[in-house]
Design brief:
This protein has about 190 residues and is α/β, with parallel strands linked by helices. It has a domain of about 130 residues: 3-Layer(aba) Sandwich (Rossmann fold), CATH 3.40.50.300. About 40% of the residues lie in helices and about 20% in strands. The protein is built from seven helices and nine strands. The strands form two sheets. Strands 2-7-1-8-9 form a five-stranded parallel beta sheet, with helices on both faces. Helix 1 crosses helix 7 and helix 5 runs antiparallel to helix 6. The longest helix is centred in the C-terminal third of the chain and has 17 residues. It starts with 7 loop residues before the first strand and ends in an 8-residue tail after the last helix.
Amino acid sequence: MSDLGGPLVYVMGPSGAGKDSVLNRARELLADDAPVIFAHRYITRAADAGGENHVALSPAEFGLRRTHGLFAFHWRAHGNEYGIGREIYAWRRAGMTVVVSGSREHFQQIGGTDDATHPVLITAPQQRLAERLSARAREDAEAAAERLQRSEAYDVTDRRLVTIVNDGALDDAAQRFVSLLATLQYSPDVRRRA
């Protein structure tokens, strides 16, 4: 059990796996009073770039926040800076389950954070990844090819890893994620502060 209180669910996976779609649908499926918070990412990408609902920062703003220790996690990928704010520590201390969307490479670099961290890999077969990257048209063909190549570059070997294959109906993958959250919320190992 972490001194921070509630569990941290660290979600990762290759581009095109549908992480944002699964997380967004899971939020809709959760009970209104579920003690779960989905952390926004801070990204040096335009707010209207498509995909997730993130907090857009200029490179200078991101650098200032990083320099002053305002990120719990930060990493660089696909030409952008990504960060998760330190506010997650307060949420965990309050006993909430905190869900973050991270990076496989970053997760390996930080060594799994703490004992109350639950890594989740959302993935799909390579062909589906390619189809989704092409359909979303967020990047040009060269950038999409680089993202696809990166999809095979990182293996997460953490013994706690839960893998969700998002290759069918979105609700199936989202429901598996919601079921995992329910297990964490009601586990006797997760004690909430009053």
